[in-house]
Write a structure and sequence with these properties.
This protein is an alpha+beta fold. Helix content is 48%, strand content 17%. The longest helix has 21 residues, at 138-158.
Length: 301
């Protein structure tokens, strides 16, 4: 084999590594509520959305296959307002993303969010197209929005405020979508929607929340396998950061989303270790996440 051919094969082998997309997204479309015989259209929709999420290059960063960020979009189509024949759909969507914990086989959830207002149009013959600078469709704007939000949180968990380069992209999609006619789910009247996720991520008052993501994950969870006592203390410091943010903006959507994702994990973390640290954690958690007050009592039993 000549050196030229060998070099060509090496370059081909490196191609997938250099061009690897950022997301590994699983899409589930639940159409049980729809009264339609055109189930193949729903299957095509699912495949198109999954391909859009997994083949789009969202950033200029290179991801190896095992580094791709895992996420799941579960879209539930609703009968009221949906019309398969005309390609109009009303739905809700649960978005979940995760990342591996260093030195373990465990995956920790980074985001759990239930989007209650997801209306969009889909025609099988039309490709899904997204442009950062203009509003194309509510479907691609919403999907791209969550792609950037997921990547932002993932980067925040790996480096202190590591997601900063993506803040403008998240905000830009919100601004473009709010000014578009007929786009749903972007208004500021509902405190648990896409606009408020963006507001929380961009709000300097909530910077301690984002700093806590780094402390919790990179300085905390990633040390649990090797230095569990140090890890618990760092996670306790992360909760104190959360408390700083919560005192300024109580009930913020992203702080609520954090605890929606972490309640079981936090109980498992602090059910062992230094009793003083466990007690401090339990007291903080009760203040930060009062809805799960009874469950957090297990930490100090």
């Amino acid at each position: 084999m000549t050196k030229t051919w060998l070099l060509a094969l090496l370059l081909l082998g490196l191609g997938p590594l250099a061009q690897a997309q950022e997301l590994l997204c699983n899409v589930i479309v639940n159409d049980v509520n729809l009264q339609t015989q055109e189930r193949q259209v729903i299957t095509q929709m699912r495949d198109a959305i999954q391909q859009f999420m997994n083949t789009t290059r969202w950033t200029n960063n290179n991801y190896r296959q095992h580094e791709r960020v895992r996420c799941t979009f579960q879209i539930t189509l609703l009968q009221d307002g949906s019309d398969v024949a005309s390609g109009r759909y009303v739905a809700n969507m649960q978005v979940v993303s995760s990342r591996p914990v260093f030195g373990t086989t465990y995956e920790t959830t980074l985001l759990t969010f239930f989007d209650r207002n997801f209306a969009f149009e889909y025609t099988p013959s039309q490709p899904l197209v997204f442009s950062e600078n203009t509003f194309s469709t509510n479907l691609t704007a919403t999907l791209a929005y969550y792609a950037y939000a997921i990547l932002l949180l993932d980067q925040d968990s790996l480096a202190n405020l590591g997601g900063n380069p993506l803040l403008d992209r998240v905000l830009n999609i919100v601004n473009n979508s709010q000014s578009a006619s007929g786009a749903s789910g972007w208004g500021s009247n509902d405190t648990r929607n896409r606009a408020w996720i963006s507001e929380n991520l961009n709000n300097p008052q909530l910077t301690p929340y984002r700093e806590a993501l780094y402390l919790y994950h990179r300085q905390g969870l990633d040390l649990m396998a090797s230095r569990p006592d140090v890890a618990r203390k760092q996670i306790l410091e992360a909760l104190k950061k959360m408390q700083q943010a919560n005192q300024v903006r109580p009930g913020s959507v992203m702080i609520n989303a954090f605890f929606d994702s972490k309640v079981n994990e936090l109980i498992n973390i602090f059910s062992q270790g230094d009793p003083v640290v466990r007690k401090q954690a339990q007291q903080l958690l009760v203040r930060l996440d009062p809805l799960n007050n009874a469950r957090y009592q297990a930490i100090v039993k």
